[in-house]
Design brief:
Elements: H1 3-14, H2 17-35, H3 52-82, H4 85-89, H5 96-126, H6 134-158, H7 162-180, H8 191-197, H9 201-213, H10 220-240
Length: about 240
């Protein structure tokens, strides 16, 4: 990977206050708002004795991934294609693939930093336990990050303009937020709905992160779903992506 391209993309990202807010700050801000509700700090039998705030920490982690993969990445890549930046790069020693790799590193790094911020704030502000199975949590988080970026790459590949990328991204955004458990934790969904949701990348990620947070190794079925989606979406993005 070209380090100069990577540094440039990081600088450009820092100049986008909207992206910085929605990916890095908003998930933790949402966690603070929810944690300020007294009922969210009380144990809930339907959640196996956990407090709602305990369940929502993994959810806020996934929100950062969804924001980064589905909203931010397609806008940047499609914008570069639309303005001819990718086409002009093909005439230089720097290949367009270097830009694509750099963008994935930037988006993934910021999303993971947002996840770390949510974990720290959850622990310090609301006494949420840190993941009791850190290795399993990290594995699930990395697979979820790969799925999110692969999904964003597919949206980029299917979008000819930034307006189309925004429309497709929005159409994907809300179902993925639902699957992640933003409006209703996966643990509280009806059995049939929960089984369907767990076949989606963010539904599987929500369960895997929740299991690792509770001290269990994430279910191999959930990890397998994440790995399968990452491979399939990456293959689709590679097939459909156009530099011009």
């Amino acid at each position: 990977m070209n380090t100069a391209v990577l540094r440039t993309e990081f600088r450009l990202f820092r100049r986008e206050p909207g992206a910085v807010f929605w990916i890095f700050l908003f998930p933790t801000l949402l966690l603070v708002i929810l944690g300020s509700i007294p009922s969210f700090r009380e144990a809930d039998k339907s959640l196996g004795g956990l407090r709602p705030i305990d369940v929502y920490v993994p959810v806020t982690v996934l929100i950062a991934l969804i924001m980064s993969g589905v909203q931010s990445l397609p806008q940047v890549l499609t914008g570069h294609r639309e303005r001819g930046i990718l086409r002009r790069m093909r005439l230089t020693p720097v290949r367009p693939s270097a830009l694509l790799s750099a963008q994935m590193v930037v988006q993934g790094t910021v999303a993971l930093a947002s996840a770390l911020l949510a974990l720290v704030v959850g622990r310090l502000a609301f006494d949420v336990k840190l993941p009791e199975q850190p290795a399993g949590y990290l594995l699930a988080l990395l697979l979820a990050t790969g799925s999110a970026l692969a999904l964003g790459s597919v949206v980029s590949a299917l979008s000819r303009t930034t307006k189309v990328a925004s429309a497709i991204g929005s159409a994907v955004f809300f179902p993925m937020m639902f699957c992640a458990g933003v409006w209703l934790p996966v643990q509280q969904m009806p059995h049939t709905l929960a089984r369907v949701v767990q076949l989606t990348p963010f539904g599987a990620a929500a369960r895997a992160l929740g299991e690792a947070a509770a001290g269990h190794w994430p279910g191999w079925g959930h990890l397998g779903v994440l790995a399968a989606w990452t491979v399939l979406l990456t293959a689709g993005a590679a097939r459909w992506f156009r530099w011009e």
